[in-house]
Amino acid sequence: MIREVSKILKRRDGYGPIKGMENWIFGIFWVFIRIFLSVSTVQARPSKCEECHQKVTPGIVKDFNRSKMAKKLTCATCHGKSHMSENDTDKAKLPTIETCKRCHAKQAKQYMSGKHFLGWIAMNAMPTTHMQPSPVNKGRKGCGGCHSLGATKEAKKDPYYPKYAMDCQNCHTRHAFSVEEAREPEACMTCHMGFDHPQWEMWSTSKHGAAYVIDRLLGRPIEDRRGPRCQTCHMPNGDHRVMTAWGFLGLRVPEDDKEWWNYRVTILKGLHVLTPDGKFTERLDVVKAGKVVRLTKEEWQAERDRMIKVCTQCHNINFVKEQLQQADMMLKEADKIFAEAIEIVADLARDGIIKHDDGNPYPDLLRFYETPYEIEQKLYLMFMEYRMRTFQGAFHMNPDYSHWYGWAEMKKTLVEIKELAKEMREKAGK
């Protein structure tokens, strides 16, 4: 270090020789800077894990080393130390939410109190889940690809549960585990798109989505982009809970609007949460566990108030409440049509034209496409595709999506169900 200082003191610049105590201090400071820079740029020697995986899975090594975690953690932190060679790969531990929880307790607690953590429970509420081929769920090539969340002890005991659970890794993809990646809307795109919940399509083609993407293309930093992204509304201040007022099924119990409540009763019978005579069934417990509906007015209002708080960061509160109320009414109108369609199909069963093994005249809507009747296939599409798009499109501020992909299809399908029911009655002589 003294030699370095001497070199600096002997150096001349345009202002003459370096002299005095101040220059000694400057010289020592400069040497420290150079030493710091030289040390910080030295590449750490690869671990034994990296030496091997650089040959077999180089992409994983590259992702890990570009992550912030590589500065503090080793492979063994998450995978354990038991796997040491190609002959004991089965001993490598697969990280779960409990692994992440050791360092990220706050985020893990938030996540485990929200709906994403209940992904597997919600899917298991469907009576036909275990009827699906193994690749669909266990192989993660269908529902299990997104719903392999919530690695609870109960889920792990399920023989249909995928080996590779996702949890945190669904958004912070391994092995980079990037916060920056998880903050972008594309992190949500894989699961929230397509048939029954096309939030990606709704948001990305809305004015909110367009404004955000344009600002990103213009190079503005994420905090300065105008349009809200998924995380802005559903994860304010980084809250990993992610809940909404209506829930996936768009239902709340009780409903003060008597007219609307009558529609809801019919829908709940179609979900087999209510018996034909209006009594709750055991399926209510599964609905509760999956948090796919709101079961008290207070619970619903708390989530609505939370969203109002988010929206009013950009919009006037009167505008916010009016827009949310209009979206509520789109859901009510969709429920009106849907309830009428359910009763038409139930009447066919009451008259013996359609037969259900359990004797319940109401079709089990949660069986989805596992039905032999064309008319019930249309009802399932009305439920899972068109009704969802009607109210989800409205809340995502996409009028075209809500109307033409949702509401218009609801109206069209009701006509088709009426015509098909008429034909079935004529064919049956009733």
Question: How is the topology of this model organized?
Answer:
Blueprint: H1 2-10, E1 12-13, E2 16-17, H2 20-40, H3 48-56, H4 58-65, H5 75-79, H6 97-101, H7 105-112, H8 119-124, H9 134-137, H10 143-147, H11 153-157, H12 179-182, H13 186-189, H14 199-204, H15 207-217, H16 230-234, H17 258-270, H18 283-290, H19 297-311, H20 317-350, H21 374-395, H22 399-428
Antiparallel strand pairs: 1-2
Helix pairs in contact: 1-2, 3-4, 17-20, 20-21, 20-22, 21-22
Describe the structure.
- By secondary structure, this protein is mostly helical.
- The protein has helices at about 1-10, 20-40, 50-55, 60-65, 75-80, 95-100, 105-110, 120-125, 135, 145, 155, 180, 185-190, 200-205, 205-215, 230-235, 260-270, 285-290, 295-310, 315-350, 375-395, 400-430, and strands at about 10-15, 15.
- It is about 55% helix and about 0% strand.
- A hairpin with a 2-residue loop joins strand 1 (about 10-15) and strand 2 (about 15).
- Helix 3 crosses helix 4 and helix 17 packs across helix 20 (about 315-350).
- The longest helix is centred in the C-terminal third of the chain and has 34 residues, at about 315-350.
- It is globular, with a radius of gyration of 29 Å.
- It starts with a helix and ends with a helix.
- The relative contact order is 0.07.
* CATH-scheme architecture of the largest domain: Up-down Bundle
**What is the H level of CATH, i.e. the homologous superfamily of the largest domain?**
Hydroxylamine Oxidoreductase, Chain A, domain 2
Q: What would CATH call the class of the largest domain?
A: Mainly Alpha
Radius of gyration: 29 Å
**End-to-end distance:** 102 Å
Strands in their spatial order, largest beta sheet = 1-2
Number of spatially distinct domains: 3
Mean pLDDT across all amino acids: 88
Q: What share of the residues lie within helices?
A: 55-70%
